[in-house]
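1st attempt posting a full record on here, be nice pls
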Amino acid sequence: MKYCERCLQPDTRPNAQFTEAGICPACHYFDQLQHVDWQERYEIFEDLLRRYPRKSSQQFDCIIGVSGGKDSTRQALWIREKLGLKPLLACLTYPPQQVTQRGVDNISSLIELGFDVVISAPAPGIWQRSMKEAFLKFTNWARSTELALFSAVPQLAIRYDIPLILWGENPGLQLGDLKTLGNTGYDGNNLRFMNTLSGGSQDWMLEAGFHPKELLPYRYPDPSEFDQAGLQIVYLGWFLGDWSLINNAMYSGLNGLAYRTDSAKNTGDLLGVTSLDEDWVTLNQMIKYYKFGFGRATDYVNEEIRLGRISRDQGIALVEEYDGCCSEEYIESFCHYIGIALEQFWQQVHANVNKDLFEIGADKIIQRRYRVGLGL
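the predicted structure (as tokens):
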């Protein structure tokens, strides 16, 4: 395990590849941003939009996937207020046991702001079963649900005949998931190769006994369907020079977005502005930390280091304090939902801890083998 020479990105992030100088893809991209002509990029975006004029049969100029969070709220407002376009907002909602009241309120806020929102809700029984199967097989309950979340937008784009899909950040450039890189910095049609989706074959779900018809919401359209519908995913973050986790949160907060009120010790979320529509993502971030050696706090800290708002040493202290934090309450409610005992949850997690990075003591406490910022 090695760390980026500038931020606290470890080389254990899936699909990441450091430069010979030991710089992570996200820091390398940030360096390039310092020389960007943002007016030129805006003009590129205007030219791109002209290639996707609204058809006479269409009511909308584009489609944007939303959760009611900071990124989707900012995208929707910027597209409408800055460019005068009419977007259709597509939201795949969680079942009642999972969605937070805060998430419901944030979607309601978007509707109250005058946006058209289509809400998709996969069958809750299939959702629950697939979540349990994914946790027991991969120790990643979101393996199935993220398929539905990512698939909903292109599925609806095809159904509503809206070829232009606007996405947020480019995971290849801004996070380091290099398999998602397309022909340009804004081309998102290779999103299907991101770590979340690339292992997203439904084979394991079929083997678990699900019927193909039950899995329609979990099916990401294949390339031929993209071509037939003329779909183009565009990373909007590539065109915005001030696109960042905190800037998006402030912009959206000024327009009615409700934040978390829980402590970072319970969530690992330093500012309470991410994954606002549900809480179980917190325990998935904890599990990711035990698998790869980084969690949500690392993502916050890396951005702040690049922007010069904190030092690397300050970042190390924050990561040591908050990465992998998760309230026992969230874990218990998740176990109750999928129908397993708390002991079974921890047995599953312990069996999948990366033993190169962590050790499990006799008291079952998981401790780092590596030093944050230095690695192994």
